[in-house]
Amino acid sequence: MSEQDGRDRAASPAQRNADLGVRIASSAVLLPLALACAWFGSWPTYGLVAIGATLVFCEWALVVDCSRTLVPRTPAVVTGAVFAGLAGLIAGSAGAAAGCAVALAGALGVALLSRSAWLTAGSLYAAALAIPMPAIRADAEFGLAALIVLLVVVWATDSFAFFAGRSLGGPKLWPRISPKKTWSGSIGGLIGGVASGLVAASLFGVPLSLGLAMLLVALSLASQAGDLFESAVKRRFAKKDSSGIIPGHGGMMDRVDGLVFAGALALFVGWLHGGGDAIAAGVLIW
């Protein structure tokens, strides 16, 4: 057991409750902001996602390359951060294909400047956050509904998993990667995430179907996989949080890890099912 794990286990109930209070307070600020930008669509959505993707790449760089080698690689970090933001803006205004082209150009630039596989992977990771949400929201007919459903599934999965795990406990899901996560939390997150997604879809008048339910299951599982992936990366580089900019949550990477994987899956499925011009419809209408 690591020193950090020991401190986590030794935390008093009062300390855990205080941490939960900070976590809830941060969410009370961030969630309305995200929903407002999703509601307005267009550049508010694209801009918020671009900022988030830029921060994610910067945090990734700090996590995987936080040693002496980071300063000489500043041009690569700046390139990755700029192209991560541009990918989101372009994906919303010109389409997912254009956003992907920008992301690939950015990854190539980072690879050439840094010669680091980890930094190059980080540029693609940031792009996986940057591209899906603007591309989905750009659909005038189904964009808002599809984006809200995606966000609800990810947020509900995380929240239900957190509270189910704390309440029920039980066997650990993958203790070597994430010592606190349990099977009860994972199952609770899956059930809560899918149920919440179906409710959100029905509120927008989306016909409920087996295809939609199966996609929501996949999105919830992808969200949990994204959480575990980020935990594995941080553990690989002995980092607890990606940064400390969000009280109670750590960094931007810590807040959007599930959304990266779930958003990428929603983009992929929506693109295959509905085509590049109807990604949101491809997510919702089965």
Taken together, the total number of domains comes to 2
Fraction in beta strands:
under 5%
Stretches where pLDDT falls below 50 for ≥5 residues?
Answer: 1-10
Total number of strands:
2
Q: Total number of helical segments?
A: 12
Q: Gyration radius, to the nearest Å? A: 19 Å
Please estimate the helix content.
over 70%
SSE ordering: HHHHHHHHEEHHHH
Largest sheet: 2 strands, antiparallel
Structural class estimated from helices and strands = mainly alpha
Shape assignment? globular
Mean pLDDT: 88
N-to-C CA distance: 47 Å
Question: Major sheet: order of its strands?
Answer: 1-2
How would you portray this structure in words?
- The chain has 286 residues and is mostly helical.
- It has two domains: 41-138, no CATH class; 141-286, no CATH class.
- 78% of the residues lie in helices and 3% in strands.
- The protein has twelve helices and two strands.
- It has helices at residues 3-10, 13-40, 42-64, 74-94, 96-114, 117-130, 132-137, 143-168, 183-203, 210-236, 252-274, 279-284; strands at residues 172-174, 178-182.
- Strands 1-2 form a two-stranded antiparallel ribbon.
- A hairpin with a 3-residue loop joins β1 (172-174) and β2 (178-182).
- It is globular.
- The termini are far apart.
- Its EC number is 2.7.7.41.
- The chain crosses the membrane at residues 20-39, 46-64, 76-105, 117-136, 142-164, 259-285.
- It is found in: Cell membrane.
